[in-house]
Amino acid sequence: MASAPGTPPGDAPVPPLLIACALGIERLALRAGGRGGAPGPVTVLRTGMGPKNTERALARALGDGTEGREAGPGAAPAAGVIASGFCAGLAPGMHPGDVVVAEETRGPWGITPCTATDVLTAALTRAVPGRTVHTGPLTASDHVVRGQERAELAATGAIAVDMESAATLHSALRAGVRPVAAVRVVVDAPEHELVRIGTVRGGISAFRVLRAVLPAFYEWHRSLLLPRR
Known about the structure:
single chain, about 25% strand, alpha/beta, five-stranded mixed barrel, disordered N terminus, about 30% helix
């Protein structure tokens, strides 16, 4: 019998998908998206804020560094990992509710390229029509970025900044070879900083967008199961 579209041939297990976020409000939004359409098991993991909490949470979730390195018959497939949640936009013209698809994450550990960003970008454009989807480097910070520091990070070519994505992807790959991605929703931007009036409205907008991204994540996950050409 032929395999269903988007599933591995034969009886190969479908790799799980792990979606990592820092905050309870982010987890609430992501879990509200439902599980319909997911090709395999999905876990939404709340890591806590900051890179150290993120590293600890990913190590617990993914194991001791051996997962994903075995490729023999019967080996369990490695989980795909997506870092998600809110971020600060760096590029002029960004607005709360815009979506950022990282082409790479940048942090103290170096640069981590992301997997199948073209698939994610197209899927998110369909999932959140009317919202702008930006692609480019996502950089790390260990604190909230404002004012001149935001401009300095933008000058490096980064389009957005957050505290956990780079640590998530670094930790995921340290635990084994696997597909990784980072998708963030802008909650503040150069012309819409958190300290300004309208923050609540911008936060609500970002929450609604984050709640709608799950179908795109599942489409990315499903695309990884297709034969490579």
